[in-house]
Input
Amino acid sequence: MTLFLRPQRIDKDQVLAAMRRVQRHRFVPSDCVHLAYEDQPLPIGYGQTISQPTIVGIMTELLNLYPGDRVLEIGTGSGYQAAVLAELDIQVYSVEIVPELAVSAAKTLLTLGYTGVHVRHADGYLGWPEHAPYDAIIVTAAAPALPPPLVNQLRAGGRLVIPIGPPDGRQYLWLFKRSASGDIRSRRLGEVAFVPFTRAEE
Ligand code: SAH
Output
C-alpha cells in the first residue's frame, strides 16, 4: 500500500524562496539591471512595466496555490511573474497583448529553462479557453471591471486576482473566489498601481 499524503498548499515562505531563485535582472532592460533587485516596478518598453516584487509576492500568495496547479496569467509583460509561478511547480498559461513583449518574454523564459510556461500573443480579455478550466487566474494590468470570459475559465473552488479601477483613478486589488456550487464571491483588498488593461482593436 502507498501512503497518500495530501499535497501541501504553497505558503508565504515558499513564495519568498521562489522569488529569491528568480534572476530578476534577466527580465529587465539592460539599462535597468542595476535596479533589478530593488523592490520597485521598472519600465520594460512599450509603456509597460515589470511589477514590483512585493506585489508579485502578495498576488501569488492570494492565489492559494498547490504544486502542479494550472494558472492563467493575463499580462505576461517581462515574464517575471510567470517565472515566479514556474518556480513553484505551476503550469502557467500567459497571455500578452503586445506582440514584441510576448516574443521577448517567451524567449527569456525558455533561455532560463522555464518550460512549464506557455506564452500566447492575444487579447487576454478572452482568456485562453483551450486550456480552461484553471485552478487560478492572475491579471497583472488594471481593468475597468472583471472580464466575464475569465470567470468562466476558473474552476469551481478557484481564485482570481485582478487590479480593478480606471486608468486615471484609484485602483484596488480584488480577489474573486468561485465556490463549488459556482457562486462568485469577491473581496476588495488594498490600493495598487498597475498599467492599464488594453483591448485589441475591434
Ligand atoms: N506580469 C508582468 C507585468 C506586466 S505589466 C511582469 O511580471 O512583468 C502588464 C502587462 O499586461 C503589459 O505587458 C501589457 O501589455 C499587458 N496587457 C494589457 N492589457 C492586456 C490584455 N488585454 N491582454 C493581455 N495582456 C495585456
